[in-house]
Amino acid sequence: MFEMLRVEAKKAIEIIEKHEFARIYTHYDADGISSGAIVALALMRHGKSVHVSFLSGLNEGVEEDELVIFADMGSGYPDILSSLESDIIVVDHHFPAGRIEPKRNFAHINPHLAGIDGSFELSASGTAYVLAEEIGNNRDLSSTALVGIIGDKQKITGGNLEVIRRGVDSGCIEERDGIRLISGKIRDVLRLSLEPYLDFYSKEDELDDFLDRFGIDGDREVDELTRDEERKLANAIAIRILKMNSYPGVFEDISGRKFYLRDELIKNAVMLSEVINATGRKASQSVGFGICMRDEGYLDRGYELWRKFTEEVHQEIEKRRDQVTEGECVRYLIMENGTSTGPIASVFSRYLFSDKPFVALNIKRDGRVKVSARCNRGLADKIDLSEVMRRSAEKVGGRGGGHVVAAGANINAESVDEFLREVDRLCCIHLSSS
């Protein structure tokens, strides 16, 4: 499975051995933070010094050094990478946007270049794990890789499945049958969960009726349920999801198997991923990074950020669901200084408005606009959101890209209307040609 990736990983190691220090840039979401931690920890165990920075994209600027490593980013910025006077290693899973012409030593570890679909079958954290495994005995980092696999809503198949198998074989990952949920009392889990999103936030009476109807004890801890209790809960959740306008494949995405992690500070893999993602979205990436590095001093702050961020997303969903605008082939939501666009777009596209791609735009005070586009896997057979975001952003002088089902862009506020018209036009073209 990883033979071609290992070839490039060995090339990366040859570059690493020339240096005592590495400057690491990584994305600020769960996949990026866990990828950065895997690379950093593997290098530190190998006797190297590192400095880690978190970015939303390379357009924010990069400080050059003798060795620069990009994790969960880089493949979409061939122009920037080609301009750097550094040895460069890219550990990414985004589809390469063009030819990189490095000025010095270069290694590009990317599943798309090895016949693996990075959109579904191998996360950036899984790609980072392949490099870590080549560097030394880092099998325990397979559990850290799960943070990104879950955080990017990837399939447990292909390269991701291989990473998990290695963790299970080494005892770092425990796999059980069941439904993947965050930790906590059932009542709190159903109210706060974003994946699956069950629309119980601020609906206490409706939640009580739900628990009573299915005979579920809301004070039971999810992680302590018996197999029969979990089946009852899973059946109830499935019925709830079916009554919503959800993408039919949602339940398959979250059921079947769940994972517990021997060496991580948070044992429930879903909970760990949610906490790490929240720290990134709240601009406290160092907290999530510290948790991935297994420093207990960051744990309480991580939980605090997770709860605050999760409640903010739920509040934003309640506030904005009636503000969604219908295009011809997309739906979109324009916010000003709103909460993070990605989680909101994910919930809307998977649970509330699943029949069309969804685009969330957040206009910031400085005039920049953060865009997140999402669609479900059924629509991904017809629409490539990565291409749509790239082409639409370029038309208005911005930058865009990502994955087939999850992509984004950065544009200016004055370009919003033209950008949305182009997004809608391109999505209609994709749909009509499929």
Tell me what the structure shows.
- This protein is α/β, with parallel strands linked by helices.
- It has 3 domains: 3-168, inorganic pyrophosphatase (n-terminal core), CATH 3.90.1640; 186-317, no CATH class; 322-433, Diaminopimelate Epimerase, Chain A, domain 1 (Roll).
- Helix content is 46%, strand content 16%.
- The strands form 3 sheets. It has a 6-stranded mixed β-sheet.
- A hairpin with a 4-residue loop joins strand 8 and strand 9 (331-336).
- Helix 2 (30-45) runs parallel beside helix 4 (124-135), helix 2 (30-45) crosses helix 12 (285-292) and helix 13 crosses helix 14.
- The radius of gyration is 21 Å and the shape is globular.
- It starts with a helix and ends with a helix.
